[in-house]
Design a protein that fits this description.
The complex is a heterodimer of chains A (267) and B (357). With 267 residues, chain A is of the alpha+beta class. Chain A has one domain: Lipocalin. Helices cover 10% and strands 24% of the residues of chain A. The radius of gyration of chain A is 18 Å and the shape is globular. Chain B is globular, with a radius of gyration of 21 Å. Chain B is 9% helix and 33% strand. The chains are: A alpha+beta (267), B mainly beta (357). At the A-B interface, strand 3 and strand 4 of A face strand 2, strand 3 and strand 4 of B.
Chain lengths: 267, 357
């Protein structure tokens, strides 16, 4: 997994390596039903579409700026995010060690909310598949292709859940916003990459997905984690649609990846 | 180690089955008067009028998960591929993709864990079907009319398009890399593999799945295997992260042929007391009970797991045997010397099978 260490380190210093899987299937396939302007390009400022059940339709392939993958508190003012002393000291150590201890280096899932954010190594976008009772979030991630399920069927959080990487997500519509709440984390995920803000098992992450128009969406992320932070904090992450393309698969091959260090990305 | 291969990824790590949404009533399931799901109710329809395949399913595949070529003649498989299967069996499957925490690729259509069941969740929209697997892999099946490309970039999960043929969803896939195995025995495939799956939801609780494989570089002609999926109501997938559990690899040593070399002689009257049927005490996450049948022929003990054929068991002692491809079995006896239980021994722990009277 040195590869990931290598490229993540590169991310923090600002160099971007392009994706190598450019010959993957269907990355240039026209999205059916997308509104288009005269030259055939997708009209990214057309109104946000509605699903058959009248809810906003969030479907599509989306990516964010990579600054949030590196530092979710990127846009925050001092005092808006305050770590407890132990968390601050752990965060400083992770940053100093250039995230060599990042669970991604062991091919673990990125955790929530980091999994949403595009990395610097070419896009690792997310894809939203929406049904009335279930929203599925499909991810490339920089380790393994992974999914999350968001249940809209009214179920409560599980009682005494087995803690895991991606937690347990329930969602509801609040006007035009899909509000996704997630708990049940194992506490091993990092909130972001260059900074390595910690997450504890007491974390509750709330993601408000709002699609402003056809080509733009934002996720307002609230981290309520009294185990690591003095108070809940919030980041607003803009996403733009990647039209006429699709996810490509990524799988982490552990020691085999070492051979590709600095040249390739995991696939 | 046919066993171990899938047991490790699929079972070992979900074994701590604490309460999550494992007992939450699935919305929309027709129920009997006692509240139990009516699995014989008619198959539901999606809002677009097509059959609705959605749900958490348990793929029942005790036979083809072990040997995808079980119905083929020996000569239908290229000699090099037969040799490769023999080598992979002798190596106890150590090099399988699952052992390296890599995806199973085309084998997700027919694979299952050691219980013979494999969980999957189907999510359906008019334009797409997504199949979610407990190991966090997923398949996208596009129903938007796109065609498979002639030579796509080889991938672990392949590329899939689907269309409706009456009430059957027909899924065609290509573009697999050649590193996945079609079964736990290790039948190989090439990058030219084409797979066609036909999903027909017979009633609310069952999908018949016909999987046709075509790979002329290995197999003389296309062939079709049938697996059935049973609805797993009122439960959910559990997150399984394979890379969290790699320490078992240290214990995965030896060769399949080692068993024969250490065979010891056990008196026929002792062996005779082991003959019988042993059924596993089902654990929470098991859906299909496993059965071991013990017989003795010509002074030699044989074990058959889930009707997959008798396997010679080599004695390590009066009570301990091995032969299920790297797995051991151990008999527990009462004061009269009669076996009461059989334990299948595995790195994840012992699995108890009680003798049936």
């Amino acid at each position: 997994m040195k590869l990931l260490i290598g490229y993540l380190a590169i991310v923090t210093t600002g160099t971007v390596i392009g994706p190598t899987a450019g010959n993957a299937q269907w990355i240039h396939y026209p999205t059916p039903g997308a509104p288009r302007i005269a030259d055939g390009k997708v009209n990214l400022t057309a109104p946000a579409p509605k699903a058959p059940d009248g809810k906003p339709d969030l479907s599509g392939v989306w990516e964010s700026g990579n600054q949030y993958f590196n530092d979710l508190s990127h846009d925050l003012k001092p005092g808006e995010m305050v770590m407890l002393p132990w968390a601050k000291s752990l965060q400083a150590e992770r940053e100093k060690r250039d995230h060599r201890d990042d669970p991604l280096n062991a091919c673990m899932p990125p955790g929530v909310p980091r999994i949403n954010m595009t990395t610097g190594n070419g896009p690792h976008p997310l894809k939203i598949v929406q049904t009335p009772l279930l929203v599925v979030l499909l991810y490339e991630t920089s380790t393994n292709s992974t999914f999350r399920q968001v249940f809209l069927d009214g179920r409560p959080f599980p009682k005494d859940p087995q803690p895991n990487w991606l937690g347990y997500s329930i969602g509801h519509w609040d006007g035009n916003a899909l509000v996704v709440e997630t708990t049940g984390f194992n506490g091993r995920s990092w909130v972001d990459t260059a900074k390595g803000h910690p997450q504890t098992p007491s974390a509750k992450v709330t993601e408000r997905f709002t699609r402003q128009d056809y080509g733009h969406m934002q996720i307002e992320i609230t981290i309520d984690d009294p185990g690591a932070y003095e108070k809940p904090w919030r980041a607003v992450v803009p996403f733009h649609m990647l039209p006429d393309t699709d996810l490509i698969e990524t799988y982490c091959e552990n020691e085999k990846d070492e051979k590709h260090e600095g040249k390739d990305r995991p696939n | 180690m046919k066993f171990l291969l899938t047991l490790l990824p699929s079972i070992l790590c979900v074994a701590p089955a604490f309460a999550q949404w494992l007992d939450y009533p699935t919305p929309g399931i027709p129920r009997l008067a006692n509240g139990k799901p009516n699995l014989a109710a008619p198959a539901p329809r999606a809002s677009d009028g097509k059959p609705n395949l959605e749900g958490v399913w348990n793929r029942i595949s005790p036979k083809y998960r072990i040997n995808i070529a079980a119905d083929l003649k020996k000569e239908d498989v290229q000699p090099w591929a037969r040799d490769l299967v023999a080598q992979r069996t002798e190596d106890l499957g150590k090099q399988s993709p699952g052992e390296q925490c890599l995806p199973s690729g085309p084998a997700y259509a027919t694979d299952a864990d050691s219980t013979g069941g494999g969980m999957m969740k189907i999510v359906q929209t008019p334009a797409m079907v997504v199949i979610l697997n407990p190991d966090l892999t997923y398949r996208q099946i596009f129903l938007d009319g796109r065609k498979l490309e002639d030579s796509p970039n080889p991938s672990w999960m392949g590329y899939s398009v689907g269309h409706w043929d009456g009430d059957t969803l027909v899924v065609e896939s290509n573009g697999y890399n050649d590193r996945t195995w079609l079964d736990t025995t290790g039948h190989p495939h090439t990058e030219a593999l084409r797979m066609t799956e036909r999903y027909h939801r017979r009633d609310f609780g069952h999908i018949d799945i016909d999987v046709t494989l075509q790979d002329p570089g290995v197999y003389a002609h296309p062939w079709t295997v049938r697996v059935t999926a049973e609805l797993a109501p009122d439960t959910e997938l559990l997150e399984f992260v394979c890379n969290e559990n790699t320490s078992h690899r240290e214990h995965w040593v030896g060769k399949a042929s080692d068993d024969a070399k250490s065979d010891v002689k056990v008196a026929p009257e002792i062996l005779a007391k082991y003959v019988g049927t042993y059924v596993e005490q089902p654990k929470l996450w098991r859906v299909v009970p496993r059965v071991v049948q013990i017989t003795v022929k010509d002074g030699v003990l044989y074990g058959e797991l889930d009707g997959r054929g008798e396997v010679r068991q080599y004695a390590r002692s009066d009570t301990s045997f091995s032969g299920f491809n790297g797995l051991s079995i151990r008999f527990v006896k009462n004061a009269q010397g009669e076996a009461t239980d059989l334990y299948v021994q595995h790195v994840s722990g012992d699995y108890r099978f009680a003798r049936q009277r």
